[in-house]
Amino acid sequence: MTLPPDAAPDKSLFPAPPMAEQERMIEAILFASADPLTLAAIAARLPHGCDAAEALAHLRTRYQGRGVTLVRVGDGYALRTAPDLGYLMQSERVELRKLSRAAIETLAIIAYHQPVTRAEIEEIRGVALSRGTIDQLLELEWIRLGRRRMTPGRPVTFVVTPAFLDHFGLESARDLPGLRELREAGLLDSRPMPGREGGGREDDDDDDDDAGQSGQSELFED
C-alpha cells in the first residue's frame, strides 16, 4: 500500500553530503548572491540532511585571515573583502566639469577688466550675476578677492590667480590674446564691446587692450 505524499516520512533516499561538500555548496551560493542570505534561505538550497549552521561555522573559520571573509550582515551571511584590504578596491579619477556659459563670461570679464567688482561684471554682461558662478570660479582657484574699491560701500574686486595663468599657459595676464586675435580665431563676434562707440577702429584694439590692463600691477597684491 502506497502512502499519500503528506504521510511519507521526511527522509531522503540519499545520505547528506560530507561536511566539506556542504561548505563548498554554501560557498558557491554566497558567491553567486548579490545580497546577504539568511540561514533559512541557505538551508533551503542545500540537499536534504545538510546542517547549514555547522557548515557556515566551518566555512567562516576557513576564511579567517584570507582576502575574502564570511561575515554576518544582520540576519544574513555574505562574502566580503577583508576590511584591511579595502583600499585595494578604491580608485581615484579626475572628474571633468564644464564651466557654464555664465562662468566662462564672468571669468573672461575678470581676466580682461581686473580688478573688477561684481556690479561692474553685471554691467558688462547685462545680467545679474549669481553667487554660484563666483563660488565655482573661487573653488577652482582661478579667481580670488582683490582690493576693495575706495568708493561708497567699498565693494570687493576680483582678479585672476596664478592657477588661472598656469592652466592657460600664460606668464601674466598681459599675455591674454587681444580682441583682434579673438575675432580672427572666431571666438568673438564683431559687435563693439560694452561702452565702446560703434565707430571704433579695429586698429585701436591693441591700444584698448593695453589700456584695459592698466592697474594689473595690483594683480597679486593683498
Structural class designation: alpha+beta
Can you give the mean pLDDT? Answer: 77
What is the CA-atom radius of gyration, in angstroms? 36 Å
Q: What spatial form do the alpha-carbon principal axes imply? A: rod-shaped
Number of strands: 6
Side by side, the strands of the main sheet go: 1-3-2
> Number of helix segments?
9
Helix content: 25-40%
For the largest beta-sheet, the strand count, sense and barrel status come to: 3 strands, antiparallel
Strand percentage = 5-15%
Task: Please write the string of helix (H) and strand (E) elements.
Answer: HEHHEEHEHHEEHHH
Low-pLDDT stretches are 190-222
Distance between the termini: 103 Å
Walk me through what this model shows:
This protein is of the alpha+beta class and 222 residues long. It has nine helices and six strands; from the N terminus they run H-E-H-H-E-E-H-E-H-H-E-E-H-H-H. It has helices at 19-32, 39-45, 52-62, 101-113, 118-125, 131-139, 162-167, 179-184, 205-212, and strands at residues 37-38, 68-73, 76-81, 116-117, 143-148, 156-160. The strands form two sheets. Strands 1-3-2 form a three-stranded antiparallel β-sheet. The chain has a three-stranded antiparallel β-sheet with strand order 4-6-5. Strand 5 and strand 6 (156-160) form a beta hairpin. Helix 1 (19-32) packs across helix 3 and helix 4 (101-113) packs across helix 6 (131-139). Residues 190-222 have low confidence and may be disordered.
